[in-house]
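Question: does this match?
>
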Amino acid sequence: MVDDVGFGLLLDRQQCLALLRTASLGRVIFTHRAMPAVRPVRFTVVGDAVVFAVPAGSPLYAGARDAVVAFEVDEFAADTGAGWYVSLLGRAAESGSADVGDIACACPGPVRAGHRLLRVPAESISGHRIGCHAE
């Protein structure tokens, strides 16, 4: 894989999935009214897919369900200039709650009424560890 960022250590698939499992807030990139849109979501990793809950009547649900979406998670420490990011692409599909377990959230509880679970398999995944630019 070509490193198109120009800095940091390119991560393999397993490293990317391991980093995804350490986070609970990511961003879904989807199409809304023929334009790119981004929404933050709390998520969990099940196998090699991310799963998140969204309101059934939301633009995110309408734009992401049965469509190819991107998903991005990162962590960055401003004081050290180090961190990482992981991006994945996959076709989002509705998922049953029995397949998922609990959505990672600081406020534990069941998925709220009126929300649907979307599952995005990591059909394509990439990531980098980011170091100080002087390294």
Notes: The radius of gyration is 15 Å. The chain has two helices and nine strands. The CA atoms of residues 13 and 24 lie 19 Å apart.
